[in-house]
User: Fold this.
Amino acid sequence: MANIFTNLLAKGAKEGYFPARTQQARDWFRERAEDVIVRNQIAVVRSNPVLTTRTQTGFLYLFAYSPKTETLPYHDKYPVVFPFQRAKGGFYGINMHYLPLEYRALLMDRLYDLTMDENYDIDTRLRITYSILESSRKFRFFKPCVRRYLNNHVVTRFALIPANQWDIALFLPLERFVKSNGGSYPTQKVHIDTTKKIRRG
Assistant:
């Protein structure tokens, strides 16, 4: 598990694909990531070389989360999130796991337009705010994915995902949706719910 990201990056390099730089490369890494079998999400988080106790706007983070109280019918235990706004005791962010893969790809392709540089490395981030996201219809898929996260309910440290690994992290099957009583909630149903919200809105 510790080498999911590096293994896929190495395979891509052998095939001549460099992450994020072309649409063809993005699609290649996304397709390969979808086929990975993930049995231990915590191990994936902890294997990341850059772990931190706090987030910054516009970077991508993977972490384990246990909500304070569950007012929604389900939540994601292992969010992969772009934070975009500070909140008391935590932050608001876009959890891309709530989107079906086709919508996830479309939104990510459009979010690449907001990168603050084209180095696609550990320092690359999105120039992202709620007002920027809401200002253009091309970002409209983000709304059903917005969640508030409280720092004291984050179970692990935050794994910072470099920009050259975004397309891997976003398409790995890391999500685990659970109901308020602790029972599992099918990812397919989550994506149906999200699709309905997108179409209504």
Q: What stands out?
A: The mean pLDDT is 93. The two ends are 38 Å apart (CA to CA). Residues 187-200 form the longest helix (14 residues). Residues 94 and 145 are 5 Å apart (CA to CA).
